[in-house]
Amino acid sequence: MFVLWDVDGNKIEDEFPPEENIDLIQSQCNTSNVSLDPSQVARIVANLTSMSGNEVKSLLVIGRNHYVVLDATFAHGGHAIVRIAHPQSHDASDIDHLNQHIRSYAHIALQMFRVPSPQKIGSIISFPATNHDGSPESLPVLGPCIDPSGRHTPSAPFETIAEYFAWLVSKKKSSQSVGEIQADIDAASQTIDILEYRLRENLPQLSPVVLRCVPSHEDFVAQNVLLDASGAIGGVIDWELHAVKSAVLAAQYPSWLSYEGSNDPQFSRAEAERLCHEFDAIVQDADPEYYMALREGVFCRAAEAWLRDEMPDFGCRRMRAWLDSL
Q1: Preceding omega of 208 cis (within 30 degrees of 0)
Q2: Helix (H, G, I), strand (E, B), or coil: what is residue 123?
Q3: 122 in helix, strand or coil?
Q4: Each residue of 255-276: pLDDT tens digit?
Q5: Where are the alpha helices (DSSP H) in 114-214?
Q6: Rounded Cα–Cα distance for residues 30 and 70 (Å)
Q7: Distances from the Cα of 307 to the Cαs of 168, 203, 304, 324, in angstroms?
Q8: pLDDT above 70: residue 136
Q9: What whole-number distance in Å separates Cα of residue 187 and Cα of residue 238?
Q10: Which of the four pLDDT bands, split at 50, 70 and 90, describes residue 98?
Q11: Coil, helix or strand for 58?
């Protein structure tokens, strides 16, 4: 199936291709061109040309997960974002492994949710000395949030979630990912202003209990987890992008299952929903506060993901399509 947003930010869905399964994940793709089978490319281009009424000038790969994400540029300067996925099925043993996988993810997430942390939003820069019994003498020391791009590092930790979002908004407005021509910059600014307005409405409604700060891995993606033979997560690597942040942002479904915001899940919607329901049941029973943060934070987490997303989104058309769908 592919999903595209047209030049006006309208979301369009259709089946592609309807009569065959193509393992696009095994295709050779890079950031400068599309190295898919020529017949596949021809069909994508023909479909886009027919739907838009404009010639496709270029087709670039701009992201890969379970979906191959393509950016089609038309002769008149417009863009369409195309996501292509192939069907996926699992046998009984796969399902057992997936269930074990989600249970172990929940176990790790719940443990992190209860780690004593400084009550600010930032990244840990040093750990305290330990007592003779191995317990820390005090809480870790926080510095400013780590910005993966290295271009917009704040000067200090944030005292509140509102301050954190204000920084994300400012960072997004100055990002090259929203475009470089004035029309795109203006459209992006308007869309980000709408998102900022909705955040100002949403944040005061959050329960105080979900605003306490807890540690978050921030790059908890499939390639950063180590699995044992049963499918359980045995370790998590690459913590350099970690943060201490509001529980409402830290409590979240695995990124490879989430359809929130800009995420590209690695499973079919039905399978992702089944595993998310399994996760819901586990955390609701084990830690009601985690479940509260998970449910109350749906909009805030999606907003954070859009504001942090560096994938090209000229004029924030994809973000606007998401906002319009709420």
Answers
A1: no
A2: strand
A3: strand
A4: 777 765 555 556 666 777 888 9
A5: 161-173, 182-202
A6: 11
A7: 6, 16, 5, 16
A8: no
A9: 36
A10: confident
A11: strand
